[in-house]
Write a structure and sequence with these properties.
405 residues; mainly alpha; Receptor-associated Protein; 16 helices; 75% helix; 6% strand
């Protein structure tokens, strides 16, 4: 039965150096006794060692994919510099502020120190290190080129997270504006419109149809606002639940998103970029093409591309060239197919796929910038119609009354 690794913590310490000068600092360790022993080895006589207090905000800080990408880059840099593997872990543990990340790296270190390979240690944490990450590290260890493979893994993770960030940037802005517009509209309907309604009651004149419609909407929202809110939360929860539990529903959403006028091209190009980047990274690491396509299928992030890659894998395993198989799916753009064909003919497939990935990553970047510029006037127009329409509806009776007078 395997023993559970002791959790690493941050400690603050005070002590005296060899000259008797008072010194202070921070260090990571498993307990105060081991920290004191470590300090004595460095020629410091510790007088006080305390566990560093952790903020309630940082204590529950989750490990994000970007943290894993940063970990990959740190490991690649230190391995290239000739730093031993275990010492590299210690340096990363010392430098990270996230307690959860510190614990994760220490757990991996303990596994390696007990005799397991780096790849085996990473496979113990599948929620943070996927099969592609572990397979590339494994290939690097077996080939004796761990530092080169770690560099490829770091580049892959950085490019992937950068691509995700660009897509989130394109999606977040309009969603945030729509939410704000919804909140402002709700406030106007619940708080402002009733004030005007009490004023209109003394007019004794027939109100415009537009104003009556807004007043009716206001009354409905005031009376049934909790039902509207509950329906929205129920719809959101049902969507999340169905997306999580139903593969058929997820596949339908993936296919529908690719057909959307604005979102579709963005998701399509990002999927092509992920396909090319993943295949380039795995193939350059010496992974056979058929095995590499296994990792690629799940990395594209869309069922349309996943099915296409699975078909490509079947075709390639029967001897068909990669570019012919890609063309037959009807999913991949002609540029990617032609670049793949050139790569196969020249024996530089990984290099050509890397160029394809870079091209489509730049395309996504440009598309996000264009969409952001295009969205600003569209969102302003949307807010003008929604909020301005409510204001006009309330002032129409006043304008009519002025015309009568």
């Amino acid at each position: 039965m395997a023993t559970k690794a002791v959790k690493v913590s941050a400690f603050t310490w005070e002590g005296l150096d060899k000259k008797g000068t008072k010194v202070t600092g921070e260090i990571n360790g498993h307990n105060p006794a081991l920290v004191k022993a470590q300090l004595r080895k460095q020629g410091i006589n510790p007088t006080k060692v305390r566990k560093k207090s952790v903020s309630i905000f940082s204590k529950g800080k989750k490990i994000k994919p970007l943290d894993i990408a940063f970990f990959s880059r740190q490991m690649a840099t230190m391995m290239k510099a000739g730093v031993p593997l275990l010492q590299s872990f210690d340096i990363i543990i010392e430098g990270t502020d996230n307690p959860n990340m510190r614990t994760l790296v220490d757990d991996v270190k303990q596994q390696v120190a007990s005799g397991h390979s780096f790849a085996t240690a990473l496979r113990q944490k599948p929620q943070y290190f996927d099969d592609l990450f572990c397979n590339l590290v494994d290939a690097g260890e077996q080939a004796g080129a761990l530092e080169a493979l770690l560099d490829r893994v770091a580049t892959y993770k950085e490019k992937t997270e950068s691509l995700k960030a660009k897509i989130k940037k394109a999606m977040t802005y309009p969603i945030a504006v729509v939410v704000v517009a919804f909140i402002v509209t709700g406030i106007l309907l619940i708080k402002v419109v009733p004030q005007f309604q009490s004023v209109f009651a003394g007019f004794g004149a027939k109100l415009p149809a537009f104003t009556l419609m807004v007043i009716g909407l206001s009354e409905a929202v005031q009376e049934y606002w909790y039902m509207f809110l509950g329906a929205m939360f129920l719809a959101f929860w049902s969507f999340k639940r169905a997306h999580k539990t139903s593969e058929k529903f997820r596949n339908g959403v993936d296919r529908a998103l690719l057909k959307f006028p604005i979102i579709g091209p963005l998701l399509y190009k990002s999927a092509v970029a992920r396909y090319a980047r993943t295949l380039s990274t795995t193939f350059a690491a010496g992974v056979p093409l058929v095995e590499a396509l296994d990792s690629v299928a799940g990395a594209t992030g869309n069922v349309v591309f996943k099915n296409a890659v699975n078909k490509v894998k079947q075709d390639v395993s029967t001897g068909m060239q990669l570019n012919f198989s890609m063309r037959s799916t009807g999913v991949f753009p002609m540029l990617a197919v032609q670049m793949t064909a050139i790569g196969e003919e020249s024996g530089a497939l990984d290099n050509m796929l890397d160029k394809v990935a870079t091209y489509y990553e730049d395309e996504v970047d440009n598309l996000v910038d264009s969409l952001t510029s295009l969205m600003e006037p569209m969102i302003m127009a949307f807010l003008g119609v929604v909020v301005g329409g409510l204001v006009i509806a309330m002032y129409l009776p006043i304008f009519q009354l002025g015309n009568v007078v």
